């Protein structure tokens, strides 16, 4: 009973955090190198402030913090907790990055570099090649994978079965969903007035890992 309650709590947390998933899609399409050159441009800061506000970020994060996760730490297995922690870390890192861009703060001094890469490589060793090729920002392309793996593990714990017996989405659906989300983020960025040169071309965006 306690384990099932822990699963329900974890699912509630994932559902709340998932409402902010667009932050990850924005980080995928943003040309951060070009944005850094316009660090003092108030129009650019205003764009990110609009994005943060439109996602109702502060309210959602407050709701997550108010959820008591004590049972999840006591009754969920280590595999589930590690995957959930990595999923959460990728998302919160994206949110903090956008927040800092909205207030003209140099992200390089405040965000712990390498922390996402370290977590992901520990759980998915073959991800190293992607990080070597695309850099630390490659972590955002693992968001959907860790979200799906977290839900898969939670369902397995709730049903008392081996997690490998169930799958929540096909590779095709994961890839298609990610492409749609990136397209939506691109449309929102353009309609909100972000200069085109601050947005990556589709050719510069790697495929979603699976």
Number of strands: 0
What's the tally of helices?
A: 12
State mean pLDDT (0 to 100 scale).
82
The major pleated sheet works out as:
none
Query: Approximately how much helix is present in the residues?
Result: 55-70%
Helix-strand sequence: HHHHHHHHHHHH
Given as residue ranges, the uncertain stretches (5+ residues, pLDDT < 50) are 165-176
Note the gap between the termini.
Answer: 33 Å
Rounded radius of gyration (Å): 18 Å
Identify the overall geometry. Answer: globular
| SS-based class | mainly alpha
Tell me the β content: under 5%
Descriptive terms for the model:
67% helix, mainly alpha, 12 helices, 210 residues
What does this structure look like?
The chain has 210 residues and is mostly helical. It is 67% helix and 0% strand. It has helices spanning 2-18, 22-29, 32-36, 42-54, 57-65, 70-75, 78-102, 107-110, 115-123, 128-134, 143-159, 171-191. The longest helix has 25 residues, at 78-102. The chain is globular. The two termini are 33 Å apart. The model is unreliable at 165-176 (pLDDT under 50).
Q: What's the gist of this structure?
A:
The chain is mainly α. The chain is 67% helix and 0% strand.
Secondary structure layout plus pairing:
Elements: H1 2-18, H2 22-29, H3 32-36, H4 42-54, H5 57-65, H6 70-75, H7 78-102, H8 107-110, H9 115-123, H10 128-134, H11 143-159, H12 171-191
